[in-house]
């Protein structure tokens, strides 16, 4: 998933990473920064052009210096978690892509209420790791998340979920690192949840694209979750059943970003509309509508982002023409269609 933070600036705007910007990044991060890195390596769809810089800060102080310095230099930045629910265009991403490293992975018990056990989970932790932890420790409430890929931070930002529930059902607070080094704990009452998104105070969301135009540029570094005591044996049995059902319904072994479109309000689910429109199996290049689930676009191996976007446009147009329903992407789409170059 796209993770932890919003887009710090318009990543589609004309921007070029200058030589002195690259030198600054090398001085700050040393071996924890790479340049011109293909994003196909970091997305579950397996597509995406190069990021100007890919940074993996190893501690909070370095992360703070990175985002503060980028803002001072007017360098756009984006934090990426597991790379699911994310489509990077073929021209790549201008600016800095930030991956949170091992320092941002971990699970710890917090609080003393045995009837309402809580866990503080760092943003870089895999959601699947958290699911396994809760099952092994007899903590109920996260069954809806079984099989959802990505990081905890991305899951928080996207309010990840299924028909059985979503992150907002178990999240009680988040910690946000603001440029300048201040870490703020924001309680649930001050968080605004929407369908597959979370808006922090001060963030503005563009409804159609789902992109966040934030004017405070914070990074989610952890979340606190609350659970109910449960029986570990029963939870394991339930998990096996849920995973089996998902494998039957969804192409979990294929390269995809998960459900591509949001389910429209007061209409059948997006996957059902796509199925009824006769679009299962449709292809553009190596991008294909899954035969197993209509709301999954899969990469058969050699698709590019343009193939996927063109197929998505066909789906939108066909569903609108047949049913009068305008589908909206659930997947976050970032980057440029073409990578321009500039002599400096």
List the topology elements.
Layout: H1 19-29, E1 33-38, E2 50-55, H2 60-72, E3 77-80, E4 86-88, E5 93-99, E6 107-110, E7 118-122, H3 127-136, E8 139-140, H4 152-157, E9 161-162, E10 165-166, E11 171-177, E12 183-187, E13 192-194, E14 197-199, E15 203-205, E16 212-214, E17 219-226, E18 228-229, H5 232-249, E19 255-259, H6 270-276, E20 283-284, E21 287-289, E22 296-299, H7 305-323, E23 332-334
Parallel strand pairs: 2-5, 3-5, 4-23
Antiparallel strand pairs: 1-2, 6-7, 7-17, 8-18, 9-10, 11-12, 11-17, 13-14, 15-16, 19-22, 20-21, 21-22
As for the CATH topology of the largest domain, it is: Uridine Diphospho-n-acetylenolpyruvylglucosamine Reductase, domain 3
Can you tell me the number of structural domains? 3
**What gross morphology would you assign?**
globular
Q: State the helix count.
A: 7
What is the terminal separation in angstroms? 34 Å
Strand order of the largest sheet: 6-7-17-11-12
Estimated radius of gyration? 20 Å
Largest sheet: 5 strands, antiparallel
Write a structural description:
The chain has three domains: 19-103, Uridine Diphospho-n-acetylenolpyruvylglucosamine Reductase, domain 2 (2-Layer Sandwich), CATH 3.30.43; 104-233, Uridine Diphospho-n-acetylenolpyruvylglucosamine Reductase, domain 3 (2-Layer Sandwich), CATH 3.30.465.10; 261-328, Alpha-Beta Complex (Uridine Diphospho-n-acetylenolpyruvylglucosamine Reductase, domain 1), CATH 3.90.78.10. Helix content is 24%, strand content 27%. The protein has seven helices and 23 strands. The chain is globular, with a radius of gyration of 20 Å.
């Amino acid at each position: 998933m796209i993770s932890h933070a919003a887009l710090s600036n318009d990543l589609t705007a004309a921007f070029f990473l200058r030589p002195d910007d690259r030198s600054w990044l090398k001085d700050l991060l040393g071996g924890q920064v790479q340049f011109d890195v293909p994003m196909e390596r970091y997305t579950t769809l397996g597509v995406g052009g190069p990021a100007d810089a890919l940074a993996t800060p190893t501690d909070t102080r370095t992360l703070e210096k990175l985002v503060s310095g980028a803002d001072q230099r007017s360098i756009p930045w984006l934090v990426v978690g597991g790379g699911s629910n994310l489509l990077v265009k073929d021209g790549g991403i201008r600016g800095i892509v930030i991956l949170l490293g091992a320092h941002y992975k971990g699970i710890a018990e917090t609080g003393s209420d045995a009837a309402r056990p809580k866990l503080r989970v760092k943003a870089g932790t895999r959601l699947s790791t958290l699911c396994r932890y809760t099952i092994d420790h007899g903590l109920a409430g996260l069954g809806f998340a079984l099989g959802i890929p990505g990081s905890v931070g991305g899951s928080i930002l996207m309010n990840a979920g299924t028909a059985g529930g979503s992150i907002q059902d178990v999240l009680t607070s988040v910690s946000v690192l603001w440029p300048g080094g201040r870490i703020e704990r924001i309680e649930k009452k001050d968080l605004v949840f929407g369908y597959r998104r979370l808006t922090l105070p001060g963030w503005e969301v563009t409804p159609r694209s789902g992109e966040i135009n934030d004017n405070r540029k914070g990074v989610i570094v952890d979340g606190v979750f609350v659970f109910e005591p449960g029986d570990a044996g029963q939870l394991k049995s339930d998990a096996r059943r849920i995973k089996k059902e998902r494998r039957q319904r969804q192409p979990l072994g294929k390269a995809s970003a998960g459900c591509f479109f949001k389910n429209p309000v007061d209409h059948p689910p997006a996957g059902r509309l796509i199925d009824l429109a006769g679009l299962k199996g449709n292809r553009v290049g190596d991008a294909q509508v899954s035969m197993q689930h209509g709301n999954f676009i899969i990469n058969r191996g050699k698709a590019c982002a343009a193939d996927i976007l063109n197929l998505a446009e066909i789906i939108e147009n066909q569903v609108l023409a047949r049913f009068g329903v305008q589908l909206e992407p659930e997947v976050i789409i970032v980057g440029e269609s073409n990578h321009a170059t500039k002599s400096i």
